[in-house]
UniProtKB/TrEMBL annotation, chains A, B:
The organism's taxonomic lineage, starting at the top: Bacteria, Bacillati, Bacillota, Negativicutes, Selenomonadales
This protein's record includes keyword Transport: no
Domain FAD-binding PCMH-type residue range list: 36-214
Organism: Sporolituus thermophilus DSM 23256
Pfam family, one: FAD-oxidase_C
Protein name: Glycolate oxidase
The keyword Flavoprotein appears for this protein: yes
Stored Gene3D superfamilies: 3.30.465.10, 3.30.70.2740, Vanillyl-alcohol Oxidase, Chain A, domain 4
GO molecular function: FAD binding; oxidoreductase activity
Stated family: Belongs to the FAD-binding oxidoreductase/transferase type 4 family.
């Protein structure tokens, strides 16, 4: 990058917030997705919207790519600076600007960590429900840009259901505000357009979110199934009885065995599936729903253990939280995917993934959010082994196309980024993708914002 | 309109679905908004997406305006064909295509009436929550295009919170599908962009919506306040105690007097405000929340009556439902607006509206959804009286600018259309509005779809 650009950036954000040494840049050259990395030419850390605006105006004038980065936990190579250029880190914009308990609203800067927001609103008896697995690391800006999901999606929805307003800096440096403090805002829903746009349309500099009352009670249970069908039928029956658990998770045999070998929780390694569930709400509802759910799980052949203390509850969720770290320990390269299907197709999908693993001789553990069909087939492999990787990528292709075949979608929460770009035409067709590209072109005519991601390269 | 165009349209949709006689056209020349009317040149009633596609391809080639029309209940002149052209009625696309009780999903054509969908899903113990006042008349396509709200917004949200997928015909006749049967779909959120786009970006030909379990119990109550402050404090206290009623409505003194004079329900005509509320859910929660709510209402000076039978419940809601019809009977021209503020500002807003009515010597009754701040100041007047109308429009201006001043928004559910177009820069600024116009231009370069509405005329 030309020294005059570095100098101009330093004038905007201060010399101490411009990183150019290789040892600094290397931290910004990858995210949590294996197989994608590239060093940026420079990292800038603006402190406010005005600095963001000036950085973008400069980059737009000079046609330099800009990659906005929160905490870098992305799983679809969404923040890797594949064309070099500028990484714009939101780390310094990390203030909770306002908590408005009367209107159940919080206003935050993009660098606030999701768990920090939840900690801050707890004293008002409120929660911010979206809870991706990375909740203690991920930034609000990143989770909004990725429309992140989480364990409570079934009952509480995903990030988009909580974003009421956004302040964004556009590609040319202009600043706009959309939405606000009401449930609905007129005009085109730019708030929803920017939510999930993966940093390709603008830089989010302020976020207004909706909060909800914290549930006063909750009850967790774990059910072990020797037959996947019993687990599948349980999911259908629980929902069929109009019980909407906050969390309804599934783990397949491969995941169970892996977790048990690393964590020794006493999980039965021969089980075909485990369901982990939690209902929340007021005391009476929780008691009633938990009793019904336990009965359903047993009737479908599940061996059920209901947590009777906070410690037992923690133990149940420790098993679930151990899934990804345990799988990741098996082999050097972990691809945690999020192929998603309608809830009723979860057993089909789990079975199909197992068949795909056998067909391509690839190691796949599947766990995830059974209640909303958002599964995490996790392919463990070694990037250095070319012949294995060929099989891994073939298996991945087949997993995503199977999700589409089952009326599902390419991404339940991890985004498209670069990792899943090649499947986009299969979900949206060329017409649908062209519409998205027209939007990208309208808002970022020079294509400087996270170029090549989500909708691919523009003509 | 040239006869060759009429002929071409007849070839697409059949002669019987092309209306051209003045007595037919007159039905399509207005909506529920006073002060806006214009006859279309032709009305077409396509029966499926292919016919819609061919109509749009023709109109786009010939640069003829197309106004998509559901049931015409719009309150912001959103469907009035102000430039003549083609009205495209969705009345024939009126099938419920699928109900999927396992996944809580329904798939409908745009001409399905909202209440019909609810009637169809009832036997599965499910509801489609968005319930605008026009629920028995309004079409699904219209309510999606307007992102309609309703009485249950506080607890259940508005239309956008239930739309999972859309099939749309684009301005040039191409057909695209966005979203689907999962909670979240990747790529730009075109489903949310089309939801609330007021017919300016495409024609919706299929809608996939999310359903939720029907509450098994509900309890309604009415509380009379001699002091508006008591009503305002009650709203704050109810929410402050983390009670989220399905419905939490307010009526001001002017509305109370008007309703009482027409319907004779025994409402106290000297009361400054009435609150009407309903909690729903399972038996225990409803009992508990209703008891707490009754206590709060009494503590703040309310005289409370809790419905103990279905008949008493119906009576309470009859009062609420009578609000708009009663106000509309007072004078020839009724402007029912939807200026919306954060919940905590509702008492301020009601007071400011009363002051505005006095200042401009205009008759305004205010009622609406206190729980989500979506108020309906209803200005009753006579369009034929020019000097009165000048004052009415001045009052309207001040009401909307007051809503913005109180951190609110121009529209809680009725849309922008033409009626509120002039206030858009005050809410979004020229930068925000330019972004929306860039979107409009990208998707409808010839500006044929509902031209002049929502984002105004393009340069």
């Amino acid at each position: 990058m030309e020294p005059r650009i570095i100098k101009a950036l330093a004038e905007i954000v201060g010399r101490e917030n411009v990183l150019t040494s290789p040892e600094e840049l290397i931290c910004y050259g990858y995210d949590a997705t294996p197989g994608f990395s590239r060093l940026p030419e420079v990292v800038v850390r603006p402190g406010n919207k005005k600095e963001v605006s000036r950085v973008l105006a400069l980059a737009n004038r000079e046609k330099i790519p800009v990659y906005t980065r929160g905490s870098g936990t992305n799983l679809s190579a969404g923040v890797v600076p594949m064309d070099g250029g500028i990484v714009l880190s939101t780390v310094r914009m990390n203030s909770i600007l306002e908590i408005d308990p009367e209107n159940f609203i919080a206003v935050v800067e993009p660098g606030v960590i999701v768990a920090e927001l939840n900690a801050a609103v707890e004293k008002y008896g409120l929660i911010y429900p979206p809870d991706p697995g990375t909740v203690t690391t991920a930034s609000m800006g990143g989770t909004v840009a990725e429309n992140s999901g989480g364990l409570r999606g079934l009952k509480y929805g995903v990030t988009k259901h909580y974003v009421l307003g956004l302040e964004v800096v556009l590609a040319d440096g202009q600043i706009a505000e959309f939405g606000g403090r009401t449930l609905r805002s007129p005009g085109y829903d730019m708030v929803m357009l920017f939510t999930g746009s993966e940093g390709t349309l603008g830089v989010i500099t302020k976020i207004i979110v909706r909060l909800v009352p914290a549930p006063t009670h909750r009850k967790s249970m774990i059910a072990v199934f020797h037959d996947l069908n019993g687990a599948g039928k349980s999911i259908a029956d629980i929902i069929g009885h109009k019980i909407i658990p906050a969390t309804l998770e599934i783990m397949d045999n491969y995941t169970i065995r892996t977790v048990e070998s690393f964590v020794k929780l006493g999980l039965p390694v021969e089980a075909e599936a485990i369901i982990l569930a939690e209902v929340d709400g007021d005391e009476a509802t929780v008691a009633q729903d938990a009793a019904k759910m336990e009965k359903i799980l047993r009737e479908n052949g599940g061996q059920v253990r209901v947590a009777t203390s906070a410690q037992e509850r923690d133990q149940i969720w420790a098993a679930r939280r151990a899934a990804l770290p345990s799988l990741a320990k098996l082999r050097p390269s972990t691809f945690c995917e999020d192929a998603t299907v309608p809830r009723s197709k979860v057993p089909d999908m789990v079975r199909r993934i197992t068949e795909i693993a056998q067909k391509y001789d690839v190691q796949i553990g599947t766990f995830g959010h059974a209640g909303d069909g958002n599964l995490h087939p996790t392919l463990v492999s070694d990037l250095r082994n070319n012949t294995e990787m060929e099989r891994v990528y073939q298996a991945m292709d087949e997993i995503f196309l199977t999700a589409l075949e089952l009326d599902g979608t390419l991404s339940g929460e991890h985004g498209i980024g670069l990792g899943k770009l090649k499947y986009m035409p299969a979900q949206f067709g060329e017409v649908g993708l062209d519409v998205m590209r027209a939007i990208k072109k309208a808002l970022d005519p020079n294509g400087i914002l996270n170029p090549g991601k989500l909708v691919g390269q523009l003509q």
